[in-house]
C-alpha cells in the first residue's frame, strides 16, 4: 500500500485568522481545565497502597524445615 502525504494550505483573511486564533485559545483553555480536573480527581481517589509482604524462604524456622523436608 502506498501512503501519500497531502498538505492543505490555508490563506485566511484577517477576520478568519482572528476567529481561528480565538478557537485555538478556547481549545487550549478547555484542554488545560480538563487536565487539571483529571489530575485533581486522581489525587482525590488515590488511596495509600497496602504494604506488600514479601516472603523470604530463608526465614523458615526449624519446625517448618521438618515439615517441608528441607535439611
Structure in words:
The structure is a single chain. The protein is mostly helical and 71 residues long. It has a domain at 14-44. Helices cover 55% and strands 0% of the residues. It is built from two helices and no strands. It has helices spanning 14-45, 62-68. The longest helix is centred in the middle third of the chain and has 32 residues, at 14-45. It starts with 13 loop residues before the first helix and ends with a helix.
- Spell out the helices and strands N to C: HH
Rg measurement, Å: 31 Å
Number of strands: 0
Largest sheet: none
Beta-strand level of the residues, as a percent range? under 5%
Give the terminus-to-terminus CA distance.
66 Å
Give the overall form: elongated
Provide the structure class.
mainly alpha
Output the number of helix runs: 2
What is the average of the pLDDT values? Answer: 80
Low-confidence stretches: none
Which percent bin holds the helix content? 40-55%
Amino acid at each position: 500500500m502506498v501512503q501519500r502525504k497531502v498538505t492543505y494550505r490555508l490563506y485566511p483573511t484577517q477576520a478568519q485568522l482572528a476567529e481561528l486564533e480565538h478557537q485555538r485559545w478556547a481549545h487550549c483553555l478547555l484542554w488545560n481545565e480538563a487536565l487539571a480536573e483529571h489530575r485533581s480527581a486522581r489525587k482525590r481517589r488515590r488511596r495509600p497502597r497496602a504494604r506488600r509482604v514479601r516472603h523470604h524462604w530463608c526465614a523458615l524456622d526449624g519446625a517448618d524445615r521438618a515439615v517441608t523436608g528441607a535439611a
